[in-house]
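Dear Dr. K.,

Following up on our conversation at the group meeting, I've run the structure prediction for Coenzyme A biosynthesis bifunctional protein CoaBC from Pseudoxanthomonas dokdonensis. I'm pasting the input sequence below exactly as I used it, so you can double-check it against your construct before we proceed with anything downstream. Let me know if the numbering doesn't match what you have in your notebook.
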Amino acid sequence: MTAADQPGRLHGQRILLCVGGGIAVYKSLDLVRRLRDAGARVQVAMTAGAQQFVTPLSFQALSGHPVRTSLWDSAAEASMGHIELARWADRIVIAPATADLLARLAQGAADDLVTTLCLATTAPLTVCPAMNHHMWLHPATQANIAILRERGVQVIGPEDGPLAEGESGPGRLSEPLDIVIQLPAGADADSGNPAPGPLQGKKVLVSAGPTYEDLDPVRFLGNRSSGKMGFAIAAAAAGMGAEVTLVAGPVHLATPAGVQRVDVRSAAQMHQAVFAALPADIYIGAAAVADYTPRQPAVNKIKKSSESLALDLMRTPDILAEVAAQTQALQLVVGFAAETENVAGYARGKLEAKRLDMIVANRVGIADGGFESDSNAMTAYWKDGERAFASAPKTELARQLMQLIVERLQA
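The predicted structure tokens came back this morning:
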């Protein structure tokens, strides 16, 4: 099985893909293919702006259905076609969702085909924002997103990275594979029965991101972990049907769909949150937890008064080893090792010393990989084997890793 495809996970679901007007519309073409690969039936509706970037014919060829573009299509509306389409959908996905489209959805507007469909349906709604990072961060857009979330709308993305205008920041449309994996599996429209994933009924606990250890009210000790890998793992596990709890250090990432998130700052707080979330069937320790923390943080800002400064640090709790020592319902404990040298040797040493079931190791401090990158390469080790994962987006690696975890559970 490839990393992307979970054949049948969306089997029989009727998904109405509404395409907004932005340069990211080219990704929506691939999204149609990925949705169909996952077993969904797909129809497409386009805004006028979207048609400036891609023709309806392209979506028709990929979806296998005529594309709806206007409320004023006399043939389609002879029998109130937009109402029929709104009722046909099991889920509506808007990708890309522009700032303007998000604003009109929040206001309850019905001034074109797409907004009318969204107002006329009872199906759940997923929006996948894509826009300039300043537009995304604007208070008006954030207020609109907050309104939509309160109404139960699923929000996927946006991602942080290079934008079409040559700038960089949060505003990129999530990758099509990532969107598909975050869509709830739901029910098979043919049978009405749930389409269970391989982790259905399992509780998965994931820790992700860095921890910050306060030196004083101004400064802290931290690391460069972005949390991207852990968040991708949580999303992949939820997509496979697991009940997922994500304990997240201080990161600026959207909570994956269907995941319960607990935010923490320090190693001590992460330790407390992880053990509060037990018991679980699987624990995946993807967080980069600080090894040391100040014995006594300064009450006031430490002033620059000498040429050198000595810090009194003490060891933090070893969360991973303590979880592995539990005798509760845990069936698999997976750790991570970020190394700058002798990756295999250090990883296998950690696997044995902490008595883990599996450890995933990668090299950091290199170009095009490691903490802050969207891509990585890694190797998983267990007692009698190993598996290498070639460089790929972290969302892709997360799916491959979760497939391996399913295999190891059955071994």
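Two things stood out to me. The chain has two domains: 14-182, 203-299+310-410. The chain has 13 helices and 19 strands.

Best regards,
J.T.
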